[in-house]
Amino acid sequence: MHKMAGEVLKNARVLPLIPQWPVISDILDTAISKMALGTVPVKEGLDDAARKVRKLVLTWPACPPPGGQAALPWRPGRPSQPDSNPVP
């Protein structure tokens, strides 16, 4: 059983360990639904979602300005640390 779990975990991926992820996920879900239903053209849906995510990330208090990734309380490959900014 443990051997099988280890094999599965070799290729496992986790959700991004950033406090904004639940909001980003909602933005992407909404955009994908609109595009799948055909209520918005794909390019327009993707551009709108990218604009919303970019604005969110740049204005979220825990995020540094562009290029300042080292200031984040986490880094890829390291576990997430507790964040004082709850998801709105």
Give a written overview of the molecule.
With 88 residues, the chain is mainly alpha-helical. The chain has a domain at 19-61. Helices cover 50% and strands 0% of the residues. The chain has three helices and no strands. It has helices at 2-10, 21-37, 42-59. α2 packs antiparallel against α3 (42-59). The longest helix has 18 residues, at 42-59. Mean pLDDT is 75; it is low at 69-88.
Low-confidence stretches: 69-88
Shape: flat
The count of β-strands is: 0
Helix content estimate: 40-55%
**Rg calculated over all Cα atoms:** 17 Å
Instruction: Determine the mean pLDDT.
Output: 75
Order of helices and strands: HHH
- Alpha-carbon distance between the two ends: 40 Å
Map the helices and strands:
Elements: H1 2-10, H2 21-37, H3 42-59
Task: Put the structure in a nutshell.
This protein is mainly α. It has three helices and no strands.
Features:
88 residues; mainly alpha; 3 helices; flat
